[in-house]
Amino acid sequence: MIFTLILSVTLCSISQGLDNGLAVTPPMGWLSWERYRCNIDCDNDPDNCISENLYTAMADAMVTEGYKDKGYEYVNVDDCWMEKERDANGTLVADRKRFPHGMKWLADYMHAKGLKLGIYEDFGTFTCGGYPGSEFYLQKDAETFASWGIDMVKLDGCNSNIQDMEYGYPAMSLFLNQTGRPMLYSCSWPAYVVFSKQIPDYKKIASYCNIWRNYADIQDSWDSVRGIIEFYGNDTGNFSLVAGPGNYNDPDMIIVGDYGLSYDQQRVQMAMWAIMSAPLLISVDLRNVKPEAKALLQSDILIRINQDANGSMGKRIMKNGAMEIWTKKLGFDFKGMAFAFLNLDDGGGPLRVNMRLYEIGLTNTEGYNVTEGFTGEFIGVLKPYDVINASVNPSGIWLGMAY
Ligand code: GLA
Q: What is the pLDDT of residues 91-136, one digit of tens each?
C-alpha cells in the first residue's frame, strides 16, 4: 500500500512514456533460461552452469557460428546470477564465485565483440528463483545496470501483485530512461495480469515497455509451443494491434535446436515466431546446434519476415479444427504478405490445402510473385483466383510469401 502511494506520487510527475529508440524491429539474441534454468552447480557442471563462462562462451559462438552476422546481438543473462544479499549500500552484486569479474566486465566483453548484454531482475521482493528483487530499489537498480553498461533489462513479476505493477513497471521505465543509457525494457507485467484472469491494458503497457511477455513460460515440448500459438491466435485483448516499431509481444524463447521438437515442429516455431514479429531470443547451446536447426535459426527468409520494417504482428485469420491460416503483412506499403498453413494436429498424415489467393486476403488483380517460404523457390505469378496447393505435415507448417 505504502509502496503504491509512493509510486503514485512519483508517477504524477511522469509525462513521457518509453522513449529509448530501441526494438525498432523485434530484438534478436540469446537468453539462458529455457535451456540452462537455475543451474548453479559450477563444481560439477562447469560448462553449463549460470556463470560468466557460459555467457562468454555463448557470445563467442554467436560470432564464430555465424549468428551475429544474421542479426543476433543480445546475450541475455536470466535468473540466478546474483548473490543472495545486496551489499552494504543496497547495490546488487553478481555471484562472486560464478561471476568473478562482475557484470561490468561481462558487458565490456560483449561490447568488444559488437554484442549487447541483457540482464534479469524482478519487480517484486524476490526473483522467481528467490534472489533479491527490485521492490523499493527500482531506481537504484536502474542506475546500477546503466553503470555496468547493460543493454536490455527483463523485469519479471514474481513475489509481487498486479496492483503494484500498474505503478511499478511504469516507474522502472522512467528510471531506465533517466539514466540516459538506452536499455531495452522487457516487461513480464501482462503475463501476470493474464494469470490473474484479467485482460491487460496493452496500450498502456506499450507506452512503457519495448517488449512484454503475455503468457506462460515456454517448455521444451510441442505441447508448450502449440499452447502458446493458440494463445496468440486468440489475441484476447487485441494485443496484436499494439505491435509495431518499438513494441513487440513476446511469446517467449526459441527452443529450436533443443531436445523437445521434431524437425517439422522446429519449422513451426521458427516460422510462427517470424510471423508473430516475436523477439528471436534463442535458448539453445550455441556451441552445439545440429545443422538442420542451425539452418532454421539462420534462415535469411525467416529472419527477413520477422524483421520486416513495418513491424506488424501476423494474425490467425482462419481456424478449422487443427488447421489454421496465419498471415503477416510485409513492407511499408503493406502489399506483401507472408502466409502460413499450420497443422496443429500431431497425428495422421499430411493435410492437403487448396486455397485461392483472395481467400487469404491477396486481392490485387495485378497478381503476386509467390514463393515457398523455407526454400525461396519461385511458385509463379498468381492472381487472386489462382489456387495454392499445399501439403502440410502433422504438427507442421507450409509457409508462403507473396509480393
Ligand atoms: C519466470 C520467467 C522465466 C524465467 C524464470 C526465472 O518464470 O517467466 O522466463 O525468467 O522466471 O526464474
A: 999 999 999 999 999 999 999 999 999 999 999 999 999 999 999 9
Could you tell me the CA-to-CA distances from 230 to 102, 135, 233, 235, 296 in Å, in that order? 41, 33, 5, 9, 22
Residue 141 annotated as catalytic:
no
pLDDT in tens, 286-341: 999 999 999 999 999 999 999 999 999 999 999 999 999 999 999 988 789 999 99
Residue 181 in grid coordinates: 543509457
Task: Please work out whether the CB of residue 78 comes within 6 Å of at least one atom of ligand 1.
Answer: yes
Taking residues 3-14, what's their average pLDDT? 46
Query: What single-letter DSSP state applies at residue 94?
Result: B
Please choose from 128, 215, 253 the residue to mutate so as to test ligand 1's pocket, defined by most ligand atoms within 8 A of CB: 128
Instruction: Identify residue 329 by its one-letter amino acid code.
Output: K
Q: Which residue among the candidates 60, 217, 220, 264 is catalytic per the annotation?
A: 217
**Which residue type is seen at 111?**
H
Q: Are 215 and 250 in contact (CB under 8 A)?
A: no
Report the range of poorest mean pLDDT among 12-21, 254-263, 367-376: 12-21
Per the annotation, the verdict on 223 as an active-site residue is no
Domain 315-402: give its CATH architecture: Sandwich (2.60)
CATH 2.60.40.1180 positions along the chain are 315-402
How close is the Cα of 33 to the center of ligand 1, in Å? 7
Chain segment 38-48, per-residue pLDDT in tens: 999 999 999 99
The answer, yes or no, to whether any atom of ligand 1 lies below 6 A from the CB of 34, is no
Tell me if residue 326 falls in helix, strand or coil: strand
Query: How far apart, in whole angstroms, are the C-alpha atoms of residue 191 and residue 249?
Result: 11
**Ligand 1, pocket-test mutation among 35, 211, 217, 250, most atoms within 8 A of CB:** 217
- Going by alpha carbons, the residue nearest to atom 11 of ligand 1 is 128
Q: Which CATH number applies to 8-306?
A: 3.20.20.70
